[in-house]
Specification:
The complex is a heterodimer.
Chain A: H1 2-21, H2 26-39, H3 62-69, H4 79-85, H5 90-100, E1 132-133, E2 140-141, H6 144-153
Antiparallel strand pairs in A: 1-2
Chain B: E1 6-10, E2 14-19, E3 26-29, E4 32-34, E5 43-44, E6 58-60, E7 63-64, E8 67-68, H1 71-82, E9 96-100, H2 106-119, E10 124-129, H3 130-141, E11 147-153, E12 158-164, E13 167-168, E14 174-176, H4 180-194, H5 202-212, H6 219-227, E15 237-240, E16 251-253, E17 265-268, H7 271-274, H8 292-301, H9 308-312, E18 315-318, H10 327-338, E19 347-348, H11 356-365, H12 369-373, E20 375-376, H13 377-383, H14 385-394
Helix pairs in contact in B: 3-11, 4-5, 8-10
The chains are: A mainly alpha, B alpha+beta.
Bound molecules: zinc ion (2 copies).
One zinc ion binds near residues 134, 136, 137 and 155 of chain A.
């Protein structure tokens, strides 16, 4: 009995130890936060179900409208042509804009500042206001129950 | 006076399009969608209405973070919009008004001009911010208005824009990086974690957001109500999801409904208002920016002192997110609490905050000023992009 108890003790001591070792550092926490924000910008979370579908086939063409009136002289350019013609990414344009917009507000500087008011905290599990912070990962929780769910589902199990 | 101007309010989520003689614009999803169930074809714009099963739709969007970058997608959607299947027009007769976001980038502006003049061969063309048309609409409805503080809260972001005597003060514009897209992705995320995997159901969850969410007029009070059990909890709702065999669109179902329900349901409680709350506290999601009311006050206080009472008195909110119930009251309450006590605060949310700019375009196309502002094909052919930049970007047009 006594031996068992001490084994449990030792074991829980080990768990404690390993938990203490496994505390996410600042960099991983920031990386997680950034990933979460990036996910909020995503258009899709699954793959294109018909990636092989040739899209141009059944698409009505502007030319049909014009031709039906019989006034069109020149051949319309394809969507693919414009993809090749205008291929600057947003990041590229933002970078060029920085050089072009000397003085005055630009896309970058128009972003509004941080709030003067303190952040509010909500439980990562149930969404209600929370008072506690998970030590290993920094997530917020509101109750022992939500902490349990958090540890079982996310916390250190997330590979971000 | 012309009554056949072609007005295209080209939003990142939906294009609002029609001739100025039309009563209402058509609202066309500005994207291409692919359905799991139909291998035959992609769905362009409102063709999605023909899709039998809208579960697991895959989206292809022309816009990234609010700016037009995928030109093959946009060209495909525009070709469809301009075709006989949607909203055709004869551009040799109809002048075109097209909208762009604030701080649009020069390569995008040039591409728009090139496509409309060279590809679609339009005869005259005006590119404006959708907000310019909203402010014109507001000034038209409220003659004598000196200043307008516009809040445009759309799919990609929210802009706070002061207009003084019809002209926007570019240097004072501020952007909050929260819009409808983030809210939909957020509700998908929390429902998927708490209840049912819906990460692939953007289309359906966007409808859930539209059908169920509201802006809380008193956040801590509503949190306390949401903690209670039904029926003391007057916020909690069940939502029956569409199965695309018996029902095509989900609906709210009372918790004590005796009616049999074979649909899968999800329960919405605090989510109903914590999701739109992100517009008021972006930091709830870890976005390090102030929310709408604080930004309104900040922007107004950065403007010349004599304009401030006028700006507080003419706060106009447009865009899809403005359609959440409770939006107007919440903005009023929060701004009121932060504004100087002797300043009158007035907030307007139009009956239809989505089409308000388009209707402004209709009104503006009938203003003689419109002729001076639009660039003709001849001018473009003679002077190229320079004349367009001069007219649309450097002149700071007046929308009083
Ligand atoms: Zn909790
Ligand atoms: Zn944790």
């Amino acid at each position: 009995m006594a031996a068992k108890a001490s084994a449990v003790e030792r074991q829980s001591g080990r768990i404690k130890d390993s938990n203490q070792k496994r505390i996410l550092d600042e960099a991983s926490r920031n990386r997680r936060a950034r990933k979460a924000l990036e996910a909020l910008e995503q258009d899709n979370f699954h793959d294109d179900p018909h990636a092989d579908l040739v899209m141009s086939k059944k698409i009505p063409k502007f030319q049909e409208t014009i031709e039906s009136r019989g006034s069109r002289k020149k051949k319309p350019k394809s969507a693919e042509y414009y993809k090749q013609r205008f291929r600057k990414s947003l990041a590229q344009m933002v970078e060029e804009d920085k050089n072009y917009m000397t003085g005055g507000t630009s896309y970058i500087t128009a972003a509004v500042e941080a709030s003067r008011y303190p952040d509010r905290h909500f439980c990562a599990v149930c969404g209600f206001p929370s008072n506690y912070t998970c030590v290993p990962c920094g997530a917020r929780y509101c109750s022992v129950r939500c902490l349990g769910t958090h540890q079982d589902t996310r916390c250190l199990k997330w590979t971000a | 006076m012309i009554d056949n101007a072609y007005i295209l309010d080209n939003g990142a989520y939906s294009a609002k399009v029609g001739l100025s003689c039309h009563e209402e614009p058509k609202i066309i999803p500005n994207c291409i969608m692919k359905a799991k169930s139909e291998r035959q074809r992609p769905f362009i714009g409102n063709q999605i209405e023909d899709c039998r099963d809208a579960s697991g739709l895959f989206y292809i969007l022309p816009f990234t973070k609010g700016y037009l970058v995928n030109w093959d997608v946009q060209k495909t959607v525009w070709d469809y919009i301009l075709s006989n299947d949607c909203c055709p027009s004869n551009f040799s007769e109809s002048p075109v008004i097209i909208t762009e976001p604030y701080f649009n980038f020069n390569p995008i502006k040039e591409a728009m001009s090139e496509i409309f003049f060279e590809e679609y061969e339009c005869q005259s063309f005006l590119r404006v911010n959708a907000g310019d048309l909203s402010v014109y609409h507001y000034n038209h409805d409220n003659p004598g208005t000196l200043c307008v503080l516009l809040v445009e809260t759309g799919y990609s972001f929210t802009h706070i824009v002061p207009y003084i005597q019809g002209k926007k003060i570019r240097n004072k514009i501020r952007r909050i990086d929260v819009g409808g897209k983030i809210l939909t992705n957020h509700i998908k995320e929390i429902i998927s974690y708490r209840q049912l995997h819906v990460m692939d159901e953007t289309y359906v969850m966007n409808q859930v957001k539209e059908d169920c969410c509201f802006v809380s007029e008193d956040f801590s009070r509503d949190v306390e109500i949401a903690r209670k059990k039904y029926p003391e909890n007057t916020i909690v709702r069940d939502y029956a999801l569409p199965d695309y065999t018996t029902i095509r669109r989900g609906y709210i179902r009372p918790l004590d409904s005796k009616e049999e329900c074979n649909q899968q349901t999800i329960r919405l409680n605090i989510e109903r208002f914590s999701v739109p709350e992100v517009l008021f506290h972006p930091s709830d999601l870890g976005i390090n920016q102030m929310g709408i009311p604080e930004a309104i006050v900040r922007v107004i206080k950065s403007c010349p002192e004599e304009t401030q009472p006028h700006l507080f008195n003419n706060i106009l909110i447009t865009g899809g997110c403005a359609a959440f119930p409770g939006f107007k009251t919440r903005v009023y309450n929060d701004v009121r609490s932060m504004a100087p006590y002797n300043c009158k605060v007035r907030v307007t949310v139009p009956d239809n905050p989505v089409t308000y700019a388009w209707h402004g375009g209709v009104l503006f196309s009938k203003d003689p000023k419109f002729y001076n502002y639009a660039v003709t094909k001849e001018e473009y052919e003679k002077e190229g992009h320079a004349v367009i930049f001069e007219r649309f970007d450097e002149a700071n047009l007046n929308f009083a």
